[in-house]
Amino acid sequence: MGSKARLAKDIAPKINDLISKNNISTYIEPFVGGANMIEHVKCENRIGSDNNDYLIEMWSKLQQGWKPPEQLTKEQYQQIRDNKNKYSKELVSIAGFCATYNAKWFGGYAGIVKTKIDTYRNYYDESVRNILKQVEKLGDVQFLNVDYTYFSNYKNCLIYCDPPYQGTTQYGTSKDFDYNKFWNWVREMSKENVVLVSEYNAPEDFNIIYEKTLTTTLDKNSRKSDTEKLYIIGEAS
């Protein structure tokens, strides 16, 4: 949910250009989620973090060669959902993000579905195959299970933030997000780093350097159009 896969081809080149122009050696993505952006970023050091420990364990284990199950039935999905402590974190993550509709954390089982044109799609299989392709591009990424504030003392980095969008369905395990605290943190970090934020809206002191309207699928019966924007304080240099 909130996947940047469709925007990566537009945003990643901007990130790479800023990394090159500012001679930056460390790229940080504090809300790495599905890693759809970081896989396209070119930087000497790449750090992807998230406060969802299941997600980070999944990426770490995939880096080490772990292979997810080829199939996951509805019954298995429900067992894992209701008994998370009995299963490995990487398996819980696969169930919670790949066997569910639109990658919403345990948002309802999505396996093989009949489409409107009488064909069938295996959403779990598609999700797992996509993740395995990504892992090939994530070999040197350092994955951390930390909150974004962990990076408060970092300097001379490019930090790309894709936080839970204000006013939309929350994803992951987070239910509360302090937006005022976040924007103040971005302001402070922008003093000695290049900080970019993807959001629909931002405080008035932030400037839009990119925007695009996309149709977002919230669940199998709900679609809406929103304009994704990329923000920065001051001018991109």
From TrEMBL:
Pfam families (UniProt xref): MethyltransfD12
Biological source species: Paenibacillus tianjinensis
Gene Ontology MF terms: methyltransferase activity
InterPro entries attached to this UniProt entry: Ade_MeTrfase_dom_2, DNA_methylase_N6_adenine_CS, MeTrfase_D12, SAM-dependent_MTases_sf
GO biological process: methylation
Record's keyword terms, sorted: Methyltransferase, S-adenosyl-L-methionine, Transferase
Keyword Nucleotide-binding (UniProt): no
PANTHER family, A to Z: DNA ADENINE METHYLASE
Catalytic activity, EC: 2.1.1.72
Superkingdom assignment: Bacteria
Reaction(s) catalysed by this chain's protein: a 2'-deoxyadenosine in DNA + S-adenosyl-L-methionine = an N(6)-methyl-2'-deoxyadenosine in DNA + S-adenosyl-L-homocysteine + H(+)
The keyword Secreted is assigned to this record: no
Name the UniProt record assigns to this protein: site-specific DNA-methyltransferase (adenine-specific)
Family (UniProt): Belongs to the N(4)/N(6)-methyltransferase family.
